[in-house]
Write a structure and sequence with these properties.
Elements (H helix, E strand, L loop, with lengths): L3 H8 L17 E4 L2 E7 L2 E2 L2 E2 L11 H22 L7 E12 L7 H16 L6 E7 L8 E9 L2
Parallel strand pairs: 5-6
Antiparallel strand pairs: 1-2, 2-7, 3-4, 5-7
Length: about 160
Amino acid sequence: MPGTIDERLTALGLTLPAAATPAFNYVPFTVHGTTVFVAGQIPQWEGQVRHVGRLGAGTALEEAQAAARLCALNVLAQVRAACAGDLDRVERFLRLGVFVSTTPECGDAPKVANGASDLLVEVFGDAGRHARTTVGVASLPLGVVVEIDAIVALRG
């Protein structure tokens, strides 16, 4: 029986990808008590990398925001895996770390991060509101424009 969050995802027309497996020596998430730590998620869909580039050097703000939104869907896929499929166990998103590949003069990284933040609030309401750090960086894995990690509190 689908839960409230699954119903909200459906109502919003959102589908979660399969939880990606790491390409390197780490795990996609760890759970400590009632806290889930999600490793950095890139904009990929079912193993296909999307949104490669740099903000301020050919990648438009709207594309970078779409990349952040896709990263957030991948974060949700990992959280779902950590919760054995039950996203209704999410009590609150505590923090997002958003890394945006930008040129040195580009100051729009926080606008890019809103692509992910807005999605989490759409899906979880106030429980999706979170603290956030957004950092512009010189490069990211596989040349993607955004990578996002998360810390999530679960109901016990």
